Here is the input.
Amino acid sequence: MSFDKIRDPRKIRHQIGDMECDYIYTAGVAGERFYIALRDEEKLLATRCEKCNITFMPPRLYCDNCFTELASFMEVPSKGVIESYTITYFDRDGQALPEPEILAFVKIDKTDGGLIHRIGEIKPESLKIGSKVTAVFEAKKERKGALTDIKYFKPA
Amino acid sequence: MNIRKRVAVIGAGITLYRRRLKESGKELSFYAANMALESAGMSRNEIDSVVMGTAPDAFDGIHMKSENLLDGAGATQKPYTHVYVGGGTGVFAPIGGWWHIASGMHDTCLVVCEEKMSPCFPHPQTAFRSIWDPIISRPLNPNLVWIFALEMHRYMKVHGIPKEHIAQVAVKNKGNALDHPSAQLAAKITVDDVLNSEIMVYPVNRLDISPPSDGAAALILASEDVARKYTDAPVWLDGVGWSLDSAYWTNRDLYFPQYVAKAAKMAYKMAKINDPPQEVSFAEPYDPFTYKELHHMEGLLLAEKGQAPKLTVEGVTARDGDLPICPSGGLLGVGNPIAAAGLMKCCEAFWQLRDEAGKRQVPKAETGVCQAWGDLMQVGTVCVFKRDS
Here is the structure.
């Protein structure tokens, strides 16, 4: 038996349900350090594994290569290089955005990692992979200890 | 059965178990896995494969959380497998590791279990709302505690078990947990404390239930020839068994867990155990509720049907009794980060069988059985561990 012709499933015997739960996620030990430095000091913190010569951005509490705990955090520049970018014209519900949004993977200087973030103060046609960018922070009183404490990266 | 390699356990690790920990799930996994590696004297590059066990993703609130946890579990760029049978996962994950070694596919396998239940609001119970059949069960808005209360009540009625006898399990396990450095709810309590704690869902009082927890545990498995290179005291994982019944839990008598018995028989046969009560020196049956320890002792064929409460009241299952049950302190005392709680039991077997359990040490521990249970009262997972001789 096929229900293909029934467009409204509520016309079939059914139960309404959902799978909603609410969450309050903890940032973790490394995340706590990273986001508090971002909020209070406008600083990006990284962790470094000397043995493997890897600087982790965002910082991790351990090196996933040699599996050593990384206890010390170091400040790195809040700037980097665009490794790749994309321009999005629609939101996830399919609605056209008032302004196209530029999203990029920014490799952070003096680290082996980077952040995905928005790019601002530049026209899409001027963008280039390899361009240098620097973080623009929210005003201090607006900062919440989250990735969005950086408003966007702009051309350096 | 064609088992190519005998499987050894050569390392174990565990984090603190708490209602809410600062560490992320990845960080918890790292601490447990790293402790296990250090205890075995191994580095990550000596690990061939990693098996991760977690219960519903809905606890951590990260869909496909095993992938999220991968780097913390030491699995970056390694063969990595996620295994899952609900609450039974913690004793199923080492079985997943056993497949890798016993088949001859890998020489070493790191097994990690993690659960971080604290992000889920208003309570991790919320995550259980959607495990029920949406047509048959969900219209009544079931919650796990009253479903298990039905099983508990049936078990009590069939055997005429007084609640006082069941309450003794909480007294014993929370007391045992006083000696466990990871424990969340260790306490010296009395049977009256349990009976006088608030009735959550009759006949379940508050002190009959284990808590929600954050935590992780890890175990390192190795083939026999490789294990000897790392340690003179391997512990043998000589029997594994698992069995699942259907989700129609209303179509069977709840007083006895047949699926646990089937899993136990499979594991005992493999481990060449013919007379479990005589040959097993201690056991870690799954105890998310007080009655479950008793129910599972019977499922594990360690007590006649209906006799587990009597053994408990007589002190047989105390740490210094003839058949110590949950010497770790169990889920009721150590805590219940679901998958990690089951693996904690296997860590306990490892430490007991190497005489490394400190104040929790059971005298003459030669053979230990660990078991977990879950889903809709339908899963039994069993591991049999033996001392090296």
